[in-house]
Amino acid sequence: MPPKTTKKPAKKAKSAPKVTPKTKSKAKPKSSAKAKAMTKPKPTKAKTTTTTPHTDDYEALLKRARDQIPPEVFDQPRFQLPEVDSFIQGSRTIIRNFKDITDTLRRDPKHLIRFLAHELATAGELQGAQAMFNGRFTSRALEDLVAKYTDEFVVCPVCQRPDTEIRREDRLLMLVCSACGGRTPLKG
Ligand SMILES: [Zn+2]
To answer: What's the rounded Cα separation, in Å, for the pair 129 and 81?
Structure first.
């Protein structure tokens, strides 16, 4: 006797997207002379309809608008990277907000410091919430490396989101994305 399986696949509640055609001007009475009132559309694409100032003014406006946008928007359109707050002390460089950075990236501080030390070809160590490196490095250089780290170990290559975590599976490190479910093997 075969097992009685009367389980039917659950009917998917199909929620058809409502298509609501935009009925404009329904208060308007039907006119028999259909669309005659509309005449032919004037080709107005040559010029932007907004009041175009003189070219110079326009350029100045654009520039001003751009200046009001924080530079990070251009540098990292996908993800707001934390700034590196660092200073040089003697022959060493200290990242003051190291913990904040790894918290933002949601990464193990040891992982990031190892990466940075390797990239800088120097030694680094954690000191509480700070990181210390032998050698003198600019905040800018450190920031570039944090950006590189983020590209390699934080941002999902599938969906470009930072909602990921690193998991060790057997001997492989995987970047697992909670946004899209993407799984990307990491080197190292
Ligand atoms: Zn993803």
So the answer is: 18
CA dihedral defined by 117, 121, 122, 123, rounded to 10 degrees?
40
Residue 174 Cα to ligand 1 midpoint, Å, equals 12
What's the 155 CA to ligand 1 centre distance in angstroms?
A: 8
**CA–CA distance, 98 with 139 (Å, rounded to integer):** 12
Question: What are the structural domain ranges in the chain?
Answer: 69-154, 157-188
Distance of CA 41 to the CA centre of its chain: 41
First-to-final CA distance of the chain:
55
CB 134 within 8 A of CB 145: no
CB-count burial class (<10 Å; 0-12, 13-18, 19+) for 156: buried
Whole-number Å distance, alpha carbon 164 to ligand 1 midpoint, is 7
pTM: 0.58
Q: How far, in Å, is the centroid of ligand 1 from the Cα of 160?
A: 6
Confirm or reject CATH 2.70.150.10 for domain 69-154, answering yes or no.
no
Q: How many CB atoms lie within 10 A of CB 6?
A: 4
Q: What is the per-residue pLDDT across 112-147, written as a single tens digit (0 to 9) for each?
A: 999 999 999 999 999 999 999 999 999 999 999 999
- The rounded distance, in Å, linking the Cα atoms of 5 and 97 is 60
